[in-house]
Amino acid sequence: MFVDALIQTITRAKINGMAGGTGTPGTPGVPAPSTGVSVSLASDNPRTGALVSSSGGTASRVPVLAFNVTAGTSGAATLTDLTFKKEGYIADSAISNAYLLENGKVVAQYNSLSQAMIQFTGMNLGVNAGQTREFVLAIDPASVDTVITLCAEEVCPVFLGHVRRLHWPIPDPATSDSLPRDEVLGRFRGARDAIRTKLEEQWLEK
124-162 burial by CB neighbour count: b if 16+ within 10 A, else e? Predict the structure, then answer.
């Protein structure tokens, strides 16, 4: 068994911290800048999980990040290029395809995946002034034997493939509370160490 993937999507605290501004009326938490666009994590963002793969069969499409794009109130905007930085241990070779979805439909397919960067280019996705569109980044894992859910307080994500399933209820280290940097780092390192221990107990020591 080859431990090939630990998918860690951008945390709610991190991505919301990237976009300041006030909320769009009727859409709590979505910034509405005066110009340009802002990006925020969607409320239904998939929870962090892990995919453990080997040379088994191809797995079904997996949503890994849901995010909102809001155009400024001064005018419409057009998305032409998007780049995602892949976090965690998942190798580039473990992803066979990547898509941008909206309302369950594919609106773009990735152009390149190299050195943990997933790039979408040549798009023409318009966002009306002051409006928000929600997109989902989804991937086709090259092969997946085991899915591990890490949700403790939240509803766990659903993976539709025929795979082995494990559940490790490790609390999400991300928080919207204003905490000292050392305490935030401690929370993330604690979660990291708990995951590492579980992986070693499950596979490396057998």
Answer: ebebeebbbbbbbbbbebbbbbbbbbbbeeeebbebebe
**Domain span at residue 99?**
5-204
pTM for this prediction: 0.59
- The predicted pLDDT at position 204 comes to 67
Rounded CA separation 134/136 (Å): 7
Closest-CA residue to 147 (of 156, 138, 135): 156
d(CA 62, CA 81): 22
Q: CA 155, CA 149: separation in Å to the nearest integer?
A: 10
Give per-residue pLDDT as tens, 77-107.
Answer: 899 999 988 776 667 877 888 999 999 899 9
Percent of the chain with pLDDT over 70: 67
77 alpha carbon, distance to own chain's centre:
23
Q: How many domains does the chain have?
A: 1
CA atoms within 13 A on the CB side of 94: 20
For residue 45, with 0-12 CB atoms within 10 Å meaning exposed, 13-18 middle and 19 or more buried, which class applies? buried
Q: What's the pLDDT tens digit per position in 32-91?
A: 677 788 888 888 876 555 554 444 444 567 788 899 999 999 889 899 999 988 776 667
Handedness of CA 190, 94, 142, 135 (dihedral sign): positive
Res 172: pLDDT: 80
Strand order in the sheet with 62-71: 37-41, 62-71, 132-141, 95-102, 105-109
